[in-house]
Amino acid sequence: MKLSVPSVATLALVAAALIAAIAPAQAGGRSAQTNYILRCTGCHGQDGSGSEQAGIPDFRGYVGSFARSDAGRRYLMHVPGVTNASLDTAEIAAVMNYVIATYAGASRDPQAPEFTPAEVDRLRASPVADVVALRREVVAQYVKDGWPVAGYPWP
Question: pLDDT tens digits for 30-62?
């Protein structure tokens, strides 16, 4: 009988399930890290590197800039991965705080408050017609202010 080697995808699913089983529970019964793994790593990667060629910004050393202003925080609440994540507002706030704490590095402003469920509700209720245009607007201001931002190839 021939045994097959498990695929990387199968191993990733098993790892995610193990992490979910041992991670401390938060909103919804899953930790923010587990929700990041389950909902965000498909695009941003386990290490937060994203894929500039695919239009997925790198979190590492950049994502903290977006927590510095209301416009940047609003942008974060309207990126497709957040709007389609099937998480409640407390889970979204927890994942955002995890992402900032884990990947922001020097871009993190220690004065920027953590996301709260109430803020997530408020920001998501503010309509965004074109999230790419909003990102361009936010980034233009951040570049003027000297804040680091990741590359983004979309026109």
Answer: 999 999 999 999 999 999 999 988 889 999 999
Quickly list DSSP for 16-39.
Answer: HHHHHHHSPP-GGGS-HHHHHHHH
Q: How far apart are CA 90 and CA 86, in angstroms?
A: 12
Give every CB contact of residue 100 below 8 A, 6+ residues apart in sequence: 63, 64, 67, 108, 112, 114
C-alpha–C-alpha distance, residues 35 and 88, integer Å: 11
Burial of 84 (0-12, 13-18, 19+ CB in 10 A): exposed
Instruction: From residue 59, give the alpha-carbon distance in Å to each of 3, 50, 65, 155.
Output: 39, 7, 10, 20
> Domains plus CATH for the chain?
8-145 (1.10.760.10)
Reported as type and span, the H/E element at residue 155 is none
> What is the DSSP code (8-state) at residue 48?
S
Phi, psi of 91 (to 5 degrees): -65, -40
Contacts of 123 (CB under 8 A, 6+ apart): 70, 73, 74, 76, 77, 78
pTM (2 d.p.)? 0.79
